[in-house]
Amino acid sequence: MEALIQNIINALSLSSLYALIALGMAIIFGIMRLMNFAQGDFIMVGGYAIVILADLPWPLKVLATLLVVVALALAVERLAFRPVRDSDPATLLVTSFAVAFLLQNLALIIFGSLAKATTLSPFLLEVWRIGDLAVPKRDVVMIITTLLLLAGLVAFLDRTATGVQMRAASEDFRMTQLLGVNANKIVASAFAVSGLLAAVAGLFLVSTTGTVSWNMGLNPLLVGFIASVIGGLGSLRGAVLGGFALGTITVMLQAYLPLELRPYRDAFAYSAVLLILLLRPEGLIVERTAKERV
Amino acid sequence: MLRIDELTVRYGPIAALHGISLEVNEGEVVGLIGPNGAGKSTTLNTIVGLIKPASGSITFDGRSIVGQVPAKIARSGIALVPEGRRIFGRLTVAENLQLGAAVRKDRAQVAEDLERTLDLFGVLRTYYSQPADRLSGGEQQQLAIARALLGRPRLLLLDEPSLGLAPIIVDLVFDVLAELKRDGVTILLVEQVAARTAEFADRSYVLRTGRIALSGTRDELDGKADFAHAYLGALDEV
User: Fold this and answer.
1) Do A290 and B74 touch (CB under 8 A)?
2) Which residues lie closer than 8 Å to A49 by C-beta, 6 or more apart?
């Protein structure tokens, strides 16, 4: 019983991380039809921000990391994507690869190829003991932070003018512009939100692994991509659900696969992903689209 | 108010519009009639900035709007009710209407206009908090028109508002347009239903394969053999 609860807590915290990564990619995809392959490297840059600011108290470190990654996301939108925004999707995709390679190689040149060790706060490494149960404080913080972020995002999308315009743009960007809504403002807002989510994901990831390296964005990128695909491309709720599905599958396989099969955990996890896509080729959540009606 | 001169639009090597000229004056309702593929939608899409013309000029209030982005043209006072309505189906009726007023800063006046709009389109009040894709086609068309009106446009462009609607709903749409006409809204109405549009509009242009074939009031058009020949069938139908 304790083991099961322990596994559920693990699954929820890993799922929180996955959901934030997937959501960050889905928000941009919804509006620009761009799978941003630099998203993982936004997370990596957040990681190095934590390394550089290691001596600051943790609240300042968190705040600075958020600012750095949001600023990076806005700069990438302005400098890399805006000039090619009206090009075909392939151009946008290649642009995102270019940004990813650029950021990775900059990190490699500046910080070297060796991983750097860091912690966000010693508090996160402690555990609460409840009977036989050991609950890492980090997991609790991650789960609560994610829930608060999701609630905040829902409120933003539902209740603010910019949020409503972003939802409209993800349905029909052209029509939104025809109503006079500034396209640059909408896209920049999407990148800012995406950057914020990447920054938080970076904080989670670094406090989990304790290391930062130039290629640490690759795995989150893969996770975010797969989670948003199984969730249903373009659906924000789908991305969250996809993140939770992938996180839960991964943790449960780790826990319950026979020992000799555990090294193949990811193979099993991605078989499960294939199965989901076989059963629901469009993903878990298919957004209703405006039907022609007479 | 709106003036188009020698407008040519090409899709690749093919010209969709061959130097058309037309004019819409303040307070006027102008029809743009023509068969499928004549270039009606191309004309509207070029006015709102979705398509860049190969040559020619478009001026609104004497200022050229060619080359401006769609959002800027919309903010200068031109609203389009596009073909196929293009309402935001996942958003509520209320949010769709709110987006229509996105360009405006006069919040108090917007609230007042919203009330008036909901009086005019009663069905939108009924479904105010519902997702817009629950509406029927005719209701969606009303929403698309209401959404455009909430931007307080000085020129309203309508692209085949009756397309795909049952005849009784088409009547309803024209009733709404008649109301707008009485209010003095300047309208450029694109339609395939020729007779009814010519009847309704102050003046009409007939577009055929990218050229203005005829223009004039309903009576003037009726007198022209070409129009009678091409559209008499349509006249009887509606």
Assistant:
1) no
2) A61, A64, A65, A68, A69, A202
